[in-house]
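Data availability (excerpt). The following record was deposited with the supplementary files.
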Amino acid sequence: MIVSPGRGYVFVHIPKTGGTAMALALEARARADDILIGDTPKARRRRRRLQGMQAEGRLWKHSRLSDIKGLLPDVQLTALRPVTLVRNPWDRMVSYYHWLRVQDFAHPAVALAKRTDFAGFLMAPETGESMRRNPYTSYVSGGCDPIFIRLEHLSEDLAPFEALLGFRVEMPVANRSDREADWRGYYDARTQARVGDICGEDIARFGYRFDPA
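Predicted structure:
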């Protein structure tokens, strides 16, 4: 997450949407008063600035907009425009599963991914509950006129954000997972339908399809 009062935005990093690349691009041009929250190099160097700051939720790289209430005065925070990346849910679920399988921290999703195949992970009740409970829009709920940037349409969707920033955003490649680029080969009819169900809100909101045009 990046909170930039000087440039008028809050970058909200939704997991497994390409957010690390965006955070790296933004922190490369960070202002001195930007609040960087996460594990990118400049965010780690500025971590001491977070000491003593009070907020309603957890301050970490995947904080939601609602989590940082109290970090700045309300009048200042509500004036910032939320910006976030979104991604085709069928692609995202493949990325998420493969990422979980190489993690070593204690978390139910990590344990589930390591003990089951991709289909088993998708069909698990806890996976469905998590996806339904956390649609993309929930991360920026309460924000004024959020900018949603589809990972698959960067050049088009970055335009309003770049206009706000006043410079071009050059996103590096970051956190590439060991998986096939074409996610369709990971699915059969049942698992394809499963993602359509548990991520239905995101699919409808952003016009995603299993077979993109």
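Summary of structural features: Strands lie at 2-4, 9-12, 35-36, 81-86, 147-150.
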